[in-house]
Amino acid sequence: MEQEKTMMKKKPSSLSEILESTPHTEVELPSKGLIYPKDNVLSKGKLHIRYLKGEDEEILLSPTHIKNTGFIDLLIKRVVLEPDFNIKDLSVGDKTYIVLASRIASLGDDYIVKEVKCNFCDHVEENVEFKISESLKEAPEIHSPVSNYKNVFKTTLPVSGHEVFMKTITGHDTDKLTNMSEKLQNVGQELSSMHTYSVLIVSSSGLDENASEGEKLKYVRDLTMKDTNHLRKFLNEIRMTPDNTIDYKCSKCNTKQEIPISFGFDFFFPEH
User: Fold this and answer.
1) Which long-range contacts (CB under 8 A, 24 or more apart) does 192-197 make?
2) How far is it, in rounded angstroms, from Cα 90 to Cα 169?
3) Do residues 151 and 139 make contact, with C-beta atoms less than 8 angstroms apart?
4) Residue-wise pLDDT tens digits, 217-228
5) pTM of the entire structure?
């Protein structure tokens, strides 16, 4: 009878109940939640993530998962505690930050790179230890959305003078670009940055009000390269996340370079 009562206990449903029963930490999003609709849980600008557990290690050690680029999404969905969280709504910049913060909270700050090669003198150094927190320096606030709770940013192209309104990429946009890439491959073509711009452009003074993605694609293809380079730089800036790299100084020639952090096996198992 007592066992039946135990089995009938309800799982925690509200966030407060979940937080009471789950060891966790709070993560402040680089976007501060300003790009999400006001009724979206992400608009609060923070998320609660639980510490990684043994069951997560099973996923991280699975060859099937570790080779699948979607395993990071799977991991984030498992550790974020907000019941109404939808990973597709999350911007790529905020997603990167969550992974880094989760790694530090659960496994510590130390990050060991087995082999680093100096780009200047070709000196190779083994088992170089870094601190992941070095990559979490707050990103500079170069741009703000045109209004709070809206994923829209404005820029002016240097040559055409057009005012262009763009959004920072989210999981929904990534899915759309993946589908677009598959369709292009079927006809022997490849996805280009121009396709990305056509998906992320909300509107432009150089386009009709209800322009289709096809019309947006033609529009960016007709722009000068100086204008498209401006769009590339602008999109990188509005990701609003610290650079996913760590500074390295060569022990032989003292040349400095940036080492990218890879979310692979070594990232989660620094002492395997």
Assistant:
1) 193/228, 193/232, 194/220, 194/221, 194/228, 196/169, 196/235, 197/166, 197/228, 197/231, 197/235
2) 9
3) no
4) 999 999 999 999
5) 0.85
* 95, 168 contact by CB (below 8 A): no
Distance of CA 214 to the CA centre of its chain: 27
- Average confidence (pLDDT) over 18-36: 92
Residue with tokens 């019309």: 215
* Element containing residue 196 per DSSP (H, E): helix 193-200
β-bridge mates for residue 248, sequence order: 257
Cβ–Cβ under 8 Å, residues 119 and 226: no
Collapsed DSSP state (helix, strand, coil) of residue 214:
helix
- Give the residue, 8 or 89, on which the prediction is more confident: 89
The residues, any chain, with a CB within 8 Å of residue 166's CB and separated by 6 or more, are 152, 153, 155, 197, 200, 201, 202, 231, 234, 235, 238
Residue 210 CA to residue 180 CA, distance in Å, equals 20
pLDDT in tens, 119-158: 999 999 998 888 888 877 655 566 889 999 999 999 999 9
Contact 228, 194 (CB under 8 A): yes
The pLDDT tens digits for 179-229 are 999 999 999 999 999 999 999 999 999 999 999 999 999 999 999 999 999
Positive or negative, the CA dihedral 21, 27, 28, 33 is negative
Q: CA-to-CA distance for 89 and 96, rounded, in angstroms?
A: 14
